[in-house]
Amino acid sequence: MNPLYLQTGTAWPPDGTAGSRASAQVRAFTESDRTELLALFGRAREGSPSASVWGHEESEAAIYLTPYMDREPESLFVAESGGRLVGCLTGCPDSSRLPSEEERTLQAIRRHRLMLRPRLAAFFARSTADLLWAAARRRPRATAFEDARWPAHLHINLVPEARGTGAAENLMTAWFDRLRSIGSPGCHLQTLCENTRAVAFFRRMGFTEHGPARLVPGLRHGGERLHQRTMVWTP
Question: What is the pLDDT of residues 169-184, one digit of tens each?
């Protein structure tokens, strides 16, 4: 097991049962975490507007988790409570070292033959309609972010019972320490405007909004369209 990096004061037991709280530890990812982290992927996004992109966890993990385990394992941190993983932060100090999110998405669509799945075909049809809607109204749509001032990026997710325990803050601290240790000029992330809890958390961690809100084609929460929010951090 990796040496302990940081420890929170409390975290709910990972099985969600009531009772005394268990300490949550943050440490670096190891290859032995891979299977459990993949199993955790879907549940760690529960309860947020971005809980699922199109409802197919394996292909979504191929975009937002597996490439980081494969290509940037030294920039991946996990939160552990009661001997089980309860969250993770995946990062990349130089975003150009990974295939773009668009490239990873297209690869996942092809590999998992998503266009042949009736339920997912409806998502892609809705995405096309959203693109036409945004173009007709000259509304900005979600795009990748590239700026040499903030080359690093991250994704962070915790299971519901680990939120509000300090685990997220400690994951971010581990990531910030890594960026400072390699002399990174800055970091960006992209979340959803409608995920107000996440936006408030990132503000507390020192991120600021950058650029306009942008429509995310195809995504819905409560029947409403969702919008991308880019945020940046400078050491």
Answer: 999 999 999 999 999 9
